[in-house]
Amino acid sequence: MIQDIEPHHLDNQYKPVPPDKDSIALYYEDHAALMKVSEKGISFPSFADLEHLNREIYKECIYLFSVDDERYYLVNEIDRSMLLDFQMKNTEIFRTADPQDRAFAGITGYQLYNWYKDRKYCGRCGKRLKHGEKERMLVCEACGNTEFPKICPAVIVGVTDHNRILMSKYAGRTYKKYALLAGFSEIGETVEQTVAREVMEEVGLKVKNIRYYKSQPWAFSDTLLMGFYCDLDGNDAITLDREELAVAEWFEREDIPVEPSRDSLTNEMILQFKNERTAVKKKKENETMRAEFDESLVTGNEMIDTQHKELIDKINKLLDSCETSKEKVVAVKTLDYLADYTEFHFGEEEKLQESINYPAIAEHKKEHDKLRAVVKDLYNMLEEEEGPSEAFVEQVNKNVIEWLYRHIKGFDRSVAEYKFMNESSERL
């Protein structure tokens, strides 16, 4: 995504140090930014490039942020007609321009430009606002009111139904490509409630199993985007809100008409679903399916990931036993190993959730109970048969492996992300 500029690093702490000749100057007019476009990509003027146009430029600028060792400042009052090498370009160029770290700096600076432009007077008493000295804020000395940069929370929603995902096109906008559903959070609602409400309002569908994916700062609209996947709950018939959307359609995974782009969370989420494959691998013809731990199953929590690897190993040993021996006693013994470790793993997960006060722990426990019921059914199948049948193996593949895959990518990732967010907030 546009903010993924590693190995470069954006430092957005407010450090109002004076610029020098090598400092970067960002200049905007409405929806355009001053830049030079060459074979090497985009570049912005330095203060040395501009000082002959405005001698007061070193005093009249506003510190924005730094990328690595380069400091960026917002400048005003430039006679750009004398800058032959630099032109005004629409800010949409930042979606695709190289190098990516400069593109991200350009659009982030644009967000701050709009904020400073729109926040000149106090909304409480009407007096002129002044810049804060220690934080990025505007202060009214008359009444004490303070203003901080505007950030609007919004959701991106991938509604899925087994192998399908719901995609839409906006109504009345210049952007004509397929996207996921989206909308801003309203007063008094959680982001999960925003997901359910927006889906119902825009396409008339109920959803369940709402699970967090990833977030993205989206400076084009002063937005912090939070991506969620959720499952269709019930009828799939679409009731389109034509004021918001021009079209909404279900697409099979293989038919998704979207190509990779680096800019948006929407694009990444669509391609994540498109390229997603079950964590089940068939090595050779007539050979039993196997579970496989790959990058798509990584949650980022070491304890959870380690136990998931062990759990997958136990599942594969059960499948191995079904392939090498048709004796009931062997299958039962191996199923015992799987059942015991499953209980251990569920216990550890639930302890972790309790320790961090995870809000969706009740729903998570219900998902664990579903697998417990599946394991019970497997025991019953072995009781009724002489040994592990093809139907038994099919149930392991369908109701154990596929359940685990969906559970990890949805529920367990949400736990890991919630723990990480809690730890990050405690450090602030």
What would you say this structure looks like, in words?
- With 428 residues, the chain is an alpha+beta fold.
- The chain has 3 domains: 10-118, Nucleoside Triphosphate Pyrophosphohydrolase; 152-264, Alpha-Beta Complex (Nucleoside Triphosphate Pyrophosphohydrolase); 280-427, Up-down Bundle (Four Helix Bundle (Hemerythrin (Met), subunit A)), CATH 1.20.120.50.
- The protein is built from 9 helices and 19 strands.
- The strands form 5 sheets. Strands 12, 13, 14, 15, 16 and 17 form a 6-stranded mixed beta sheet that branches. Strands 1-6-7-2 form a 4-stranded mixed beta sheet, covered by helices on one side. Strands 3, 4, 5 and 8 form a 4-stranded antiparallel beta sheet that branches.
- Strand 12 and strand 13 (164-170) form a beta hairpin.
- Helix 6 packs antiparallel against helix 9 (390-427), helix 7 runs antiparallel to helix 8 (361-384) and helix 8 (361-384) runs antiparallel to helix 9 (390-427).
- The radius of gyration is 27 Å and the shape is elongated.
- 29% of the residues are buried.
- Residues 282-286 have low confidence and may be disordered.
Give the arrangement of secondary structure elements.
Layout: E1 10-11, E2 24-26, E3 28-29, E4 32-38, E5 41-43, H1 47-50, H2 57-60, E6 62-67, E7 70-74, E8 87-90, H3 100-118, E9 130-131, E10 138-139, E11 146-147, E12 152-161, E13 164-170, E14 181-184, H4 191-203, E15 207-218, E16 223-232, E17 245-252, H5 265-275, E18 280-281, E19 290-291, H6 302-324, H7 328-355, H8 361-384, H9 390-427
Parallel strand pairs: 2-7, 12-16
Antiparallel strand pairs: 1-6, 3-4, 4-5, 4-8, 6-7, 9-10, 10-11, 12-13, 12-14, 13-17, 15-16, 18-19
